Amino acid sequence: MTGFGGNHIVKTPNLDRLAAESAEFTRFYTPTPQPGPSRASLLTGQYPHKNGVTSDGVSLPPQADTFTSRLAAAGYTCSLIGQWNLKGVADSQPAFGFSQYPATTSQPFSWQNCDVWVDGKPAKADKFLTDWLADRAIEFLSRPHVKPFFLWVSFPAPDEPTVYPPGTERRYPPADVDLPIAMRDLQTDRPTMLNQAPAARSFQQIAEQTIREGRSKYYAMLSNLDANIGRLAQHLDAGGLGSSTVVVLTSEVGFACGDHRLVSIAPAFYDELIRCPLLIRRPGAGPAGVKIDRVVSLIDLAPALLQLAGADVPITMQGQSLLPLMADPETRRYADECFLEFDHQESWVCQVRGIIVRNYKFLDYASGTDGLYDLKHDPDEVHNVAMEPQYRVVLDVLKNRLQRWQQTTRDPLYRKQPS
Questions:
Q1: Domain of 66?
Q2: Which of 39, 111, 194, 389 is the most buried (most CB within 10 A)?
Q3: Can you tell me the distance from the alpha carbon of 363 to that of 340, in angstroms, rounded to the nearest whole number?
């Protein structure tokens, strides 16, 4: 839903400018469509079943080896501004190498008059939350910095509940909003377990006009976010830090706004829910304005950040650094595959494992239903071809590759197949 990503409705000029100055990874996937497990995977460079955070509400162990704790050990001051999606530590003091927390949001958060923590003390945000967090980030960048720093600005937006930021109420009239192509499909051939998910049931209870209004608000929130990222970038450059600071933009998960007849997040692995933006701007080091179309995972970002900082990458990280891909997008060191998983969403159990390769996406639902999508001929992921005879060889190859990964990573769901 960005201009640089090909959207012609949502206006994101600042993100588009950042993309023009960055390496853009166009097929960057989170291993699971839940914020908490995704953040744990980002921090540890490990899949959820490896680091133990398999659902929202599960804590990352305090002794977890994270890229932020390693940056701190390498002499970086690590600071967090914004949302913290992991349980087990206080919102005011996220830990894991963070020694400064200028402004963090409490859970649940609100867009106006939000309860926040400022340097560990309770306070209130006195304006729309995205604007307020950007102000705090600019304050941080304005300080003198003796040591190298890592600043994580974690904007909640755009997210539920979708609202219009002040002054954006008329920017995207609901009547002009586009509806997803896949929303028209009845999804009769998708896994039964997915049709029972809360996100699928929520879709059945709302009208098309509500979907249009929700997408209208989502667009407005994204444009507001774009404006604030523009403010940050301008301040970074004006303050002289732009030429010596790596800028990374990404997200943890996607969001269904009626896509595939879903609302919010679900145990679904459609691109709308798991394909995330990734921009990496390295001043003076390039590449800039380059699109890298290789299949990569969120777990690959932690080793890349450590390598950028000159810090050691632990062998326990399952991801591969993205820097060699930035130097040579055609390198054969990468297999063009990433793996997917889902165990449960709160008390609702739905165990799924999957794999994405260049042209296909395969999903193995423990309930006994498979999903296979031909991404080259069906980029909207409307047709599940798992039962079509002409895809039998593809299905078998991907099943075997997925099972080898489960065995190698000691996935608790792995079951040795009969000879």
A1: 13-331
A2: 194
A3: 8
Instruction: Give the mean model confidence (pLDDT) for residues 69-95.
Output: 82
Whether 395 maps to a domain, the answer reads no
Q: Which two tokens stand for residue 160?
A: 């539920």
Residue 80 and residue 152 in contact, taking contact as beta carbons nearer than 8 Å: yes
Number of H helices, E strands in the chain: 12, 16
CA distance 246 to 302: 14
What pLDDT sits at residue 326?
94
Residue 181 pLDDT exceeds 70: yes
391, part of any domain = no
